[in-house]
Design brief:
By secondary structure, the protein is an all-alpha fold. The chain has a single domain (21-140), classed as Cytochrome c/b562 (Four Helix Bundle (Hemerythrin (Met), subunit A), Up-down Bundle), CATH 1.20.120. Helix content is 75%, strand content 0%. It contains seven helices and no strands. The radius of gyration is 18 Å and the shape is elongated.
Amino acid sequence: MRKLILTLSTVALAVTAAYADPIADRKAIMKERGGLIGGLAKMVKGEADFDAAIALDTLKKLQANEAKLDIDVLFAPGTDKGDTKAAPKIWEDMTGFKEANHKLREATDEAVASPPTDVKALDAQVSAIGGACGGCHKTYRLPS
């Protein structure tokens, strides 16, 4: 019994340490996400040379970033208070919020599964990813 309690306590401590400040953690994830998408957008706009290897690496980083967003922890009840642009709609419609996030995950997974071979392909992928981001922000993020 002691081992079970010790194990559960250790797991709880690890989860708490991993997300000590859910608002700050989700902001960091979103900031990183924006930077990654911004780098891809520069290639699409011709502000940076298209490089298939860099594009794929960035898409994989975006995929890893998406995997870090544990909605149940980072948007748990009570994390709507504080310095956040998260709209109350998230907690009113958690199912819809998760579905919107799933669309981003799908767009990112599809982009990684079919790496872009030219700017036109990357443009289509960035548009799909950006559309998923924008759709979520429109409903679930407060205006800046």
